[in-house]
Amino acid sequence: MDERVRVYERARELLLAHDMRGFADLWAEDGTMEFPFAPPGWPRRLEGREAVREYVRDYTDHIDLRAVVHEVVHRTADPGVLIVEFAVDAVAVATGRAHRIDYVAVITVRDGEIASYRDYWNPLVLDDGLTFAAEGGRTDG
């Protein structure tokens, strides 16, 4: 199987299992996670596995991912880069309110680890009642 697809599928599996430590372990030690559409006051770039681990540490306290309901995987000409469009059904823990969240992720895999993950999540879901601890630097992505 294509290594970049295998890494993405493992990331999806860990997210759905609410294993955020395992999810962060997929990152290269010097890997990055970026949020180009992050609203003001929210992190736009995390540098290093430990920064990713800290960022996702309490993710499941805020959002309960239930299922990937749409997914399109685009293999690029670059053997290390994968583009994935997906949507998840989730529940905001604080409110119990159900949400469908859309993402586009550009993932670069190097030596079986995530070297770069650009997460183009939609911050408008925050206006729809999905809340996270902004002061702690959390987003839904």
Description:
The chain is α+β, with helices and mostly antiparallel strands. It has helices spanning 3-16, 20-25, 49-56, and strands spanning 27-34, 45-47, 63-75, 81-92, 98-110, 113-119. The protein has a 6-stranded mixed beta sheet. The longest helix is centred in the first third of the chain and has 14 residues, at 3-16. The protein is globular, with a radius of gyration of 14 Å. The two termini are 26 Å apart. Residues 133-141 have low confidence and may be disordered.
Concise synopsis of the structure shown:
This protein has 141 residues and is of the alpha+beta class. Helix content is 20%, strand content 40%.
Secondary structure: elements and pairs:
Layout: H1 3-16, H2 20-25, E1 27-34, E2 45-47, H3 49-56, E3 63-75, E4 81-92, E5 98-110, E6 113-119
Parallel strand pairs: 1-6
Antiparallel strand pairs: 1-2, 3-4, 4-5, 5-6
Our estimate of the beta-strand percent is 35-45%
How do the strands of the widest beta sheet line up side by side? 2-1-6-5-4-3
What general form does the structure show?
Answer: globular
| Low-pLDDT segments, ≥5 res | 133-141
Tell me roughly what share of residues is in helical segments: 10-25%
Distance between the termini: 26 Å
Over the alpha carbons, how many angstroms does the gyration radius reach? 14 Å
> H/E element string?
HHEEHEEEE
Tags for this entry?
141 residues, alpha+beta, six-stranded mixed β-sheet, 3 helices, 6 strands, 20% helix, globular
